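Q: Start with the shorter request: fold the first protein.
A: Done. Sequence, then structure:
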Amino acid sequence: MSDTRSYPTRPFLAVSAAIVRDGKLLVVRRARPPAHGLYTMPGGVVEAGETLEEAVTREVHEETGLTITPAALAGFRETIVRDDKDRVERHFVILCFAARWRAGEPVLNEELSEARWLDPAELAGLPTTPGLSDIAAMAYARLKEAG
């Protein structure tokens, strides 16, 4: 089976969630490429017919088993990976939501090798996807604004 996300003809729209529980942020470690071994936020590609909030809620549940409530958009990241011939191998536009934990404990799927609830200051000591600490800071600000 070929990976239709490799060498795309267009960018893929994805979502992720900065999930906060008792002041702690959930980070997950990727178990396979892309971003193998890096800490990031759970999420994935938006499916046709889904709203962004439906997509982020579904993706978080599929990856971690958690139930969340998205509160606000915290920002975005764009990931473009090029191969050694400078061809676009992957291209994702990722909208990250600030979200509140509602229920469950992390139960990882095959895409993730670890989950941690941690203080945002602890991100500095971890290998993360680019911009993770900035998105986390925006998520905390959005959650504070949302009340």
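Q: Next, the second protein, separately.
A: Sequence, then structure:
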Amino acid sequence: MGTPTRSVYHFKVLLALIEKVGFHLAQELFWYNPAKMPMPAEWVTVRRIRVKDSVEYVWWLSKTPWPKAANANVLKEYSKDMLRLNARKVRATVRPSGHVIHSGFDKVDAGGSIPPNVIEDEIPDDMLRFGNNAANDQYTLRCKEAGIKIHPARFPAALPDFFIRFLTDPDDIVVDPFAGSNTTGAVAERLERRWVAIERNKEYLEASKFRFDL
């Protein structure tokens, strides 16, 4: 924090999990969070040395070199350009990069496009937004009514929703070892997965019950 350069501890943790624990890095993803504060303020808003961070790393680690996953469960709606391309079919050509595009690239409608590894808010449902600035959701309102401290570092429901659908099947077990306000458990419940939530702060656990109020 004493200089504008970054700590690399998260990369060291990742390497330790791979080299010492034996996990495999399936893929690195990035959660685009436009609500992130311009921190550290000293370097972003005071001295103006750095720009504002707007992504969080998400390391997808697997116990084996062949992780269980299905991107067909998290397809996005086709863009207008893709719909137009599908309608006129692929034209054989050679791109400037040297890649040869031929008619074999034509495919039947797969139900949507494969999402990129940058996870961002493209879902109109307010319950599944990727931003982290919810102030009027059920959990927050109930905490205020009960005079219970709101968890200070919540993440949006859309984040666990994406990964639970991507990496698990109904009736699988989802474990969150640092549950906080238990967003993960609530999403797992809605998606018909079994779940285990672990949290040492009893106040956070008590408040997490609000996520399950009908």
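Q: Describe the second briefly.
A: The helical segments are 9-21, 41-46, 80-88, 138-146, 158-167, 183-190, 202-208. The chain has a mean pLDDT of 86.
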